[in-house]
Specification:
87 residues; mainly alpha; binds zinc ion; zinc; zinc-finger
């Protein structure tokens, strides 16, 4: 008999009240994420704009209905090409 439960593995737990940034995937408190998200998105846009055209990605979309989201026809077509496979 060996004691294999001496040190339990450290598993990061998802605490309630924490939300995952849809852009970078990191966890933030509900207060912090409201500050972080616009900054993170701005940063993402800057980084993305530095990339060569063929490496650019469509902007991550917030998993909520967005008001005032303006998409040009071209952007919609780009997203359709990248994303949807309708099953
Ligand atoms: Zn982020």
């Amino acid at each position: 008999m060996s004691e294999s439960l001496h040190s339990p593995p450290v598993i990061p737990s998802r605490r309630p009240g924490f939300r995952v940034c849809y852009i970078c995937g990191r966890e933030f408190g509900s207060q912090s994420i409201a500050i972080h998200e616009p900054q993170c998105l701005e940063k993402w846009r800057i980084e993305n704009s530095k990339l060569p055209k063929h490496l650019r990605r469509p902007e991550p979309s917030k998993p909520q209905p967005l008001r005032g989201l303006e998409l040009t026809d071209r952007e919609i077509m780009t997203r359709a090409e990248v994303g949807c496979s309708t099953d």
